């Protein structure tokens, strides 16, 4: 089957790894995979909220030898649930801020738009 999409590996984009990788998913296997994509002396930021019962395996020597910094952030408090409720009820229309939408296979293009400065307010990836 011929597909118009070029499937890629993250390392195709940055063979030496990225300066900073961010998890916004809260999915434990995704969090574990971040350490494979961060470069030397890079930072891993955990922003997504994993379930309380979730756990990951981190290899301390791997972090130490590559001088990786692990950061955690909780960027919202009690306002998340009411905001989600307003969106679900249709009381707030968030579509004007969604300026770009991409299939996951267009990650490289989406990254270029995000880096272009000012062209994208909010970009989203859509499932295939």
Could you describe the 3D structure shown?
- Strands 1-2-3 form a 3-stranded parallel sheet, with helices on one face. It has a two-stranded parallel ribbon with strand order 4-5.
- The protein is built from 5 helices and 5 strands.
- By secondary structure, the protein is an alpha/beta fold.
Shape: globular
Low-pLDDT stretches:
1-7
How would you write the strand order of the largest sheet?
1-2-3
**Strand percent estimate:** 15-25%
Fraction of helical residues = 25-40%
Distance between the termini: 16 Å
Instruction: Specify the CATH class of the largest domain.
Output: Alpha Beta
In the CATH hierarchy, the architecture of the largest domain is 3-Layer(aba) Sandwich
Radius of gyration: 17 Å
> Major β-sheet, in short?
3 strands, parallel
Give the number of domains: 2
The chain-level structural class is: alpha/beta
Query: What is the number of strand segments?
Result: 5
Corresponding CATH superfamily of the largest domain = NAD(P)-binding Rossmann-like Domain
State mean pLDDT (0 to 100 scale): 84
Question: Please, how many helices?
Answer: 5
